[in-house]
Amino acid sequence: MTTIDTTTAGLRVERDGSVLLLLLDRPERRNAIDRPTALALASALDEFDADDTLRAAVLAGAGDTFCAGMDLKAFSATGERPVHAVRGGFGIVEQPPVKPIVAAVEGAAFGGGFEIALACDLIVAGESAGFALPEVKRGLLAAAGGLLRIRDVLPRTLAAELVLTGEPIDAASLAALGVINRVVPDGSARATALELARTIAANAPLAVRESKRIMLESGDWPVAERFDRQRPIADGVRGSADAKEGAAAFVEKRAPRWTGR
User: Fold this and answer.
1) 198 class by beta-carbon count within 10 Å (0-12 exposed, 13-18 middle, 19+ buried)
2) Which of 91, 166, 224, 232 is the one with CA 20 to 30 A from 243?
3) pTM score, two decimals?
């Protein structure tokens, strides 16, 4: 794995072929995110989306914690909030990357940490990982996507229990409910997430990106309009050079050579 950027403002960025690893690197603060870290993450995601040679990303935390959410010490001292003007809280929750991103969770993903994981497309978790939205215990609410996304991935009553009690839930329970893609032995979440990201990166990048787009945008499409709204996007992919290359590679029994066009 080749490092393409040094540690900056609590974030380490590394490249593994066409996969980008984004590592929250504030283990002394349980990877809690302050404003500089949020801005660094947003900047890294901008570069990720703009680089045609990068096709998937993994977001992980250094040490034994994924992310403890907002840095409350910085918040209490200066009132600073880890918000980016475009990507929103923590540099990701309002505008995640257009390309696929996999969360690799070890240890705690509490508060904003859980909200960051929910903003990702896939989640891999160590078997001892814990997830919670404890904001109500601190006089706050999960406004960085927790309240908005938890209802989409969990039954209403369970979502309400997590939000209103602030109590944690374990990885196995979330996996059984379809929220987590893989539960793996502790210490191997990052490696497993990288394997998933490499599998994604091996596919046609235009088809992957537009598939993600349709899944995200179609949630509020009227039922009667869904196929009409999908059609121009699908036609663009169907008429692409990658679609022709995929068919040719299948016929010729060889690996495809994607261009993303």
Assistant:
1) middle
2) 224
3) 0.93
The residue from 127, 135, 167, 210 that is catalytic is 135
β-bridge partners, 89: 83
Tens of pLDDT, residue by residue over 106-150, are 999 999 999 999 999 999 999 999 999 999 998 999 999 999 999
Q: Which residue out of 106, 115, 167, 225 is catalytically annotated?
A: 115
What band does 80 get if pLDDT is binned at 50, 70 and 90?
A: confident
**C-alpha–C-alpha distance, residues 138 and 1, integer Å:** 40
Whether 115 is catalytic:
yes
For residue 45, which of 34, 29, 35, 59 has the smallest C-alpha distance?
59
Q: Helix/strand/coil (H, E, C) string of the chain?
A: CEEEEEEECCEEEEEECCEEEEEECCHHHCCCECHHHHHHHHHHHHHHHHCCCCCEEEEEECCCCCECCECHHHHHHHCCCCEECCCEECCCCCCCCCCCEEEEECCEEECHHHHHHHHCCEEEEECCCEEECCHHHHCCCCCCCHHHHHHHHCCHHHHHHHHHHCCCEEHHHHHHCCCCCEEECCCCHHHHHHHHHHHHHCCCHHHHHHHHHHHHHHHHCCHHHHHHHHHHHHHHHHCCHHHHHHHHHHHHCCCCCCCCC
Sheet holding 169-170, edge to edge: 108-110, 130-132, 169-170
